[in-house]
Amino acid sequence: MTKGGDIFDQLNARSREVFRRVVEGYLESGEPVGSRSLTRTLSEKVSAATVRNVMQDLEYLGLLDSPHISAGRVPTQMGLRMFVDGLLEVRDLDLSDREKLDATLASNTEDVGGLLDRVGSALSGMTQGASLVLTPKHEAPIKHIEFVSLGHDRALVVLVFADGHVENRLFAPPPGQTPSSMREAANFLNALIEGKTLSELRTVIAAEISKRRQEIDSLAQALVESGLAVWDDDANQPERLIVRGRANLLASDGQAEELDRIRSLFDDLERKRDIAEFLELTESGEGVRIFIGSENKLFSLSGSSLVVSPYMNADRKIIGAVGVIGPTRLNYGRIVPIVDYTAQLVGKLISDRS
């Protein structure tokens, strides 16, 4: 089939207006739009029969669909994509929406995780959809590593980051550890860590242990490897995905089949280990992106739409994303500026705290 953009170029002014009115009517009401109601809103005075003929042509082109015989028309996924790309009018962010978002991020008393949790709740409340916020993993350079014995079968690995952030994790050390082997393991790591992030350190450590196997005691080596394994175990889920507003979608008046698809979407999100895939949706460029239905495999089964934007740190590196999920008849014109402004605010917040 011809791509939507090529089809759009082939439409005359009347067909474009009919198509736009059908999509806008559907997005507003969620109901099929009929020819009689369209004749009252078109700029050109034409008969209902003429409008029906135009709608049939648009249906033949794959832009509209008729859910029931003798019913009005609704846009197809390709039609929605063509509308979003060529006809969507994104308005400026409403002052009231801006004030709500500013107020959400006004407090500096909470940690970043707590503030992002509030962002998710604010987004779902404002859009009446479900919000997704992917929090950044901690990628500051490491300043110091320490091993602390808590017993013969328990130890603590302490990471101090250059920005003052501290993380502690319990792990099972190798049998027979001694105070000297723990000091040797910590000294070995601290000699290598300067200026390196945790992900960079893993690669360096593996190479150094292989190269200097004779120089490091086997017990200290085992301690290094088991201590780092604690962090490696979490490598598949380095970020946290905050989902808010599930009830907004499940409480809708949709059919049971639609609600089952929405439930499957949330079940998939909650089970998903590699949530970094969500961030990859945004990596083709800055700004807001819109995914409709099966355009994104994560949401294809639910037939939902996703409006998502990355946020960046002070170095202009993408470190997370914010988005809104809803039915395909989202109010895109209002939600796009909300998501865009939220991403900018979150990026500034992260940069200011770095």
TrEMBL record:
It holds the Pfam family HrcA. The keyword Transcription regulation applies. Keywords: Repressor, Stress response, Transcription, Transcription regulation. It comes from the Bacteria. GO terms for biological process: negative regulation of DNA-templated transcription. Residues 115-336 form the Heat-inducible transcription repressor HrcA C-terminal domain. One of its GO terms (molecular function) is DNA binding. Negative regulator of class I heat shock genes (grpE-dnaK-dnaJ and groELS operons). Prevents heat-shock induction of these operons. HAMAP family: HrcA. Belongs to the HrcA family. This is Heat-inducible transcription repressor HrcA. It comes from Thalassococcus profundi.
